[in-house]
Write a structure and sequence with these properties.
Layout (H helix, E strand, L loop, with lengths): L1 H8 L3 H9 L3 H8 L5 H13 L3 E6 L7 H20 L8 E5 L12 H18 L4 E3 L7 H11 L8 E4 L5 H8 L5 E5 L14 H17 L3 E5 L3 H13 L8 E5 L4 H9 L4 E7 L4 H10 L1 H14 L1
Parallel strand pairs: 1-2, 1-8, 2-3, 4-5, 5-6, 6-7, 7-8
Helix pairs in contact: 1-12, 5-6, 6-7, 8-9, 9-10, 12-13
Bound molecules: flavin-adenine dinucleotide.
C-alpha cells in the first residue's frame, strides 16, 4: 500500500522538487548511489572488485525525451566502458553495464524503439571491445515487449546481451521457460514498478512464489541465471536448488544493489559464489532513490530520520 502510494506520488513534480532540494537528501542518496561522476563510479568499482565482488554499472537516467540526450547517454556508457577497460576492470566481465532502454530513447515520440536499439547496439559493441557484457534493465510492464524485441534483434550480433525478468508479472514463468536456453544471461528480480492486477500479482507472497518458480526454471536450464534479490529466503532456496541441479558455482551469480546487505554480499562471495553488485551513478538519481525507498519501510524511515535530524 505504502509502496504503491510512494511510487504514485513520485510522479508529481511538486514531490520531486521537495525531495531533490531537501538539504539532507544527499546523505541518503550517497548510501545507494556511487556519486555523480564516472570517476566516482570507477572508484567504487575498484573497491568492490578488490573485495572479490563483481559489478554492473548503471548510468542513472530514464524517460529520455530527445534523441540528442539518448545518444549522449549511450556515449557516456561507451566512454565508461573504455575507462573500465583501460583500468583493467572489465576483462572477463568483472565489471559490466546495465542499461535502461528508456534512457537511450525507447520512449521518443518518433522512432523510439529503433533509436534505443541503435544506441544499445553501440554500447554492446563497446562492451565487446572491453571484454565485458551488457544487461538490459526491465522497466514498467508496457516496456517489456519492446525491450524483448530489441533483445531478440540484437542477440544474433551480441549473444551475451542479458535481460531481466520480473516475478511480479504473471507472464514471467513463461518468459523464463523461453529464455532458459544455452548462452542466455537472465537476471531474475521481483520488479520495482506498479502494475494492474491483470498483469501483475497484487500480493507480495504471490510475487515471492513466482520468483521461486522462475528461479527453478532458470537454474535447471543451461543458461546463466543472475539471481537478483536481497531476500534471505530466496537466497537460501537458490543455494539448495543450484546444488540439486548440480549447477557449477561459475554458471550462475547472485546480484544485489549497492548499499543493500553489503555483509551478505561478502559472505556469499567468500563462500565461493559469484556475486555482482549493481552500482548506479550520475546526477539523475530521483527515480532510482524513490524505488529503493518504496521497497522497504526501513529505507523510508532512514530517509525521514535524516531529514528530521538535520533538515
Ligand atoms: C542487481 C539488481 C538489479 C535489478 N534490476 C531491476 C530491473 O531491471 N527492473 C526492476 O523492475 N527491478 C530491478 N531490481 C529491483 C528489484 O526488482 C526489487 O525491487 C529489489 O531488489 C527489492 O526486492 P528484493 O528481492 O530484495 O525483495 P524485498 O521483498 O524488497 O526484500 C526481501 C527481504 O530482503 C531483505 N532486505 C531487503 N532490503 C534490505 C535492506 N535494505 N537491508 C537489509 N535487508 C534487506 C529483507 O529481509 C526483506 O524482507 C533489481 C535488483 C537488483 C538486486
Amino acid at each position: 500500500m505504502l509502496r504503491r502510494a510512494l511510487l504514485a506520488a513520485s510522479a508529481s513534480a511538486r514531490v520531486r522538487r521537495i525531495v531533490t532540494t531537501a538539504p539532507l537528501t544527499r546523505d541518503v542518496v550517497a548510501r545507494f548511489v556511487a556519486g555523480d561522476s564516472a570517476d566516482d563510479a570507477l572508484a567504487v568499482t575498484r573497491r568492490l572488485l578488490d573485495d572479490g565482488l563483481l559489478v554492473s554499472l548503471d548510468y542513472l537516467g530514464e524517460d529520455t525525451v530527445d534523441p540528442e540526450q539518448a545518444a549522449a547517454v549511450a556515449d557516456e556508457y561507451i566512454r565508461l566502458l573504455g575507462r573500465l577497460d583501460e583500468a583493467g576492470m572489465s576483462g572477463g566481465g568483472r565489471a559490466e553495464v546495465s542499461v535502461k532502454p528508456t534512457a537511450v530513447g525507447l520512449d521518443l515520440a518518433e522512432h523510439g524503439e529503433k533509436t534505443a536499439r541503435e544506441n544499445i547496439a553501440r554500447i554492446c559493441a563497446a562492451g565487446r571491445d572491453a571484454g565485458t557484457t551488457v544487461t538490459l534493465d526491465m522497466e514498467e510492464h508496457t516496456r517489456v515487449e519492446p525491450t524483448l524485441r530489441i533483445l531478440g534483434q540484437l542477440q544474433p550480433d551480441f549473444p551475451d546481451l542479458g535481460c531481466v525478468i520480473q516475478s511480479y508479472l504473471r507472464r514471467s514463468p513463461e518468459d523464463c521457460q523461453a529464455m532458459a536456453v544455452a548462452g542466455s544471461r537472465v537476471r531474475l528480480c521481483k520488479g520495482a514498478y506498479n502494475a494492474a492486477p491483470g498483469v501483475a500479482f497484487p500480493a507480495r507472497a504471490e510475487v515471492d512464489r513466482c520468483y521461486a518458480r522462475c528461479l527453478r526454471v532458470l537454474l535447471d536450464g543451461p543458461g546463466y541465471p543472475m539471481i537478483a534479490t536481497h531476500d534471505p529466503r530466496l537466497i537460501r532456496i537458490t543455494g539448495v536448488r543450484a546444488r540439486a541441479a548440480r549447477k557449477a558455482e561459475d554458471s550462475f551469480e547472485y546480484q544485489m544493489l549497492y548499499g543493500i546487505r553489503p555483509a551478505e554480499q561478502l559472505r556469499l562471495a567468500r563462500g565461493g559464489s559469484r556475486v555482482r553488485v549493481y552500482v548506479p551513478y550520475g546526477s539523475d538519481w530521483y527515480g532510482y532513490l524513490i524505488r529503493r525507498l518504496a521497497e522497504r519501510p526501513a529505507n523510508l524511515a532512514f530517509f525521514l530520520r535524516s531529514l528530521a535530524s538535520r533538515g
